[in-house]
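Chain A, query sequence.
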Amino acid sequence: MANINELKPYIDEIVIQDGIKKLADRLNDIYKDEEVCMVCVLKGAVMFAVDLAKNLKMPLDMQFIRLSSYGSNQTSSGKVNAVDIKLPDLNGKNVLIVEDIIDTGHTAKFLMDFINYNFHAKSLKFCSLLDKKVRREVDIDADFYCFEVEDKFLVGYGLDLDDMCRNLTGIYYL
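Chain A, predicted structure.
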């Protein structure tokens, strides 16, 4: 485990919250009063999903799934492990997948394909706090994101290093 003193600030809490409010305003304009099913990818996206949900005005159903592609590494393995992917009936619903970071794109593609194969959603959109486009390996993009980031290993605000540092209110890099 890296020493917390080795972490360097990348995005502070005020900037994160401002970005989330701007994204929520955009989503409120798009969905208006239509019901949305938010699918939060645990564990990393939980802080982002909760703060985003607090700013959304439409009727919101929050669901949680667990996927993993990092393990204890600092880079994506490229293989997605569906730890817990039980979802209610999403047929005819507006589905918004909420993820902490879209990196190589394997997790995003896996989840979009899974939902498209198993359900006929009214709409399906992918939303990420962070978008690391420089590392993309598959042809997929976030429909919505707050910040495009450089190729750095990031921790804090849900992002972890061996399950530590998720509780930091800002985002840091090693």
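The first helix runs from residue 13 to 31. The mean pLDDT is 91.
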